[in-house]
C-alpha cells in the first residue's frame, strides 16, 4: 500500500518545508520535492495543498476506563482512542493503576487486557505506583523490561494514591538505579485534606470549593519538595498537569541549575479558570479536576513557560466523567465529584490557537504536541517526526478551517465539553496511523484493534 500526500507544508519541530510525503506500508518512505508526484504509481492520494502535514499527536497523559471514587472514567480504550484519532492524536500513553496490595506486573497485565485489541491508535502505559514496598520497588525493573519506564506517584489523595516523602525518596532512588522517570502529581494532599474538611464543616459544598481548598501555593510547595527529593536521589522528575505559576517557578529554577526536571501542562489550564468552577447551579462540577483550574492570571505564565521550554509538553490528562450520572455524585459535597475533565480530542486544535494568537510558533506547536513527548517517553524517532523510516502517523491539518467545539459533535464518550462553544481556527482533515487512513472528511475509517502497544525506550532528554 502506497499513499502520497502532496502539496502540503511539512512541519517538523526542526523546521518546515514544502514536500510530498510518500508512505509505503506503515512507514514514511520519502519526502519528495513538490512536483515529482505525477510520475508516481500509488494506491491512494491525499491532496494537502494549502495544509500542514504534521507528525501525529502524542498525548502522554490519558485515563481511559480509570477507576476513581467508586466509578470509572467514561471513555474506554475504543471510544477514547477513536476520539483521539479525530483530533489528530495517533499515540496515547495511558496510566496503569496499581491497586493497593497488588503487584505492578499483575497491574500491567490487567491494563493490557483492557486495551489489547480495543485501540484505534497506538498506545503505551505509564505505571501508577500506589504501594511503595520492597516488592513494588523490585518490580519497577521488570516494568522497564515490559516497555514501561515512567512511574507516577501522588503527593495528593491521602488514603488513596498518596505516597509519603520517604516512599517517594525510595521510589526515586530505584528509578535512578534503573533509568526510569518519576512522574509527580504535586499537590500537598495532607494540607489540602484539612482545608477540604474545614470547608465541608462550614457548609461550603459547591464545586468552586474544590479550587479554593487546593490553593496554588500548595502545588508550588509540593513541586519544590518533589524537586528536592529528585535532586537528593539524582532521579529525573516529570511534573504532570502543572497548573500554577508557583509550581512553574520551582520547575524553572530547577531547570536553570541543570537538574533533570521536566513538566507538562494541559489545555484546560491554558484556557479555563477558577471562574468556570464557580458557574451557577452545579455546572462548575464539569470543571473539577486536580490540580484545579487557577485564577486567570496563571494562564499567561503557562504560555510563557511553553515558549521558554520550562514547560516541555502539553498533554490532556483526559479523564472524562459524565455530568448527568457521574459528576452529580458530588452534589452537596464537592469532595465527592469525580476528578477529571475530557480533552483528548481537542488538544492539537486548542494548541493551534496558540499559533494563531502568536503565543507559540508553528514548529513549537508540533514540538509540544508530538516531538517532545516522543523523545521524553522513548518513542522517537519512530514517532514524533515526519521523516523517512518513521511510522506514518501523519495529520493533514487545515490551518484556515473554522470549527466550534461542542458535545453535540465531539466523539468522546462524555455528555459535555469543557470547551463548549469555543470557536477555533484550524481543523484536522486527514489522519494516518501507521500508514492507514483512520480519519478523513468522510468520517472515521479506522478500526478498534488497529492500535498496537508500544514498548518504550528511555527518556532521551536525560543528561
Ligand atoms: O483530576 C484529575 N487530574 N484526574 C485524573 C487523575 C490524575 O490525578 O491525573
Ligand atoms: Zn494527577
Ligand atoms: Zn492524570
Ligand atoms: Zn455516563
Automatic annotation (TrEMBL):
Keywords for this protein: Hydrolase, Metal-binding
Cofactors, names only: Zn(2+)
SUPFAM superfamilies recorded: Composite domain of metallo-dependent hydrolases, Metallo-dependent hydrolases
Cellular component GO terms held in the UniProt record: cytosol
Modified how: Carbamylation allows a single lysine to coordinate two divalent metal cations.
N6-carboxylysine: modified positions: 152
Protein's UniProt keywords contain Hydrolase: yes
Keyword Metal-binding: yes
Pfam families, per the entry: Amidohydro_1
Coiled coil: none
Taxonomic superkingdom: Bacteria
Residue ranges annotated for the Amidohydrolase-related domain, each copy included: 52-438
Similarity-based family: Belongs to the metallo-dependent hydrolases superfamily. Hydantoinase/dihydropyrimidinase family.
UniProt name for this protein: Dihydropyrimidinase
Phylogenetic placement of the source organism: Bacteria, Bacillati, Actinomycetota, Actinomycetes, Pseudonocardiales
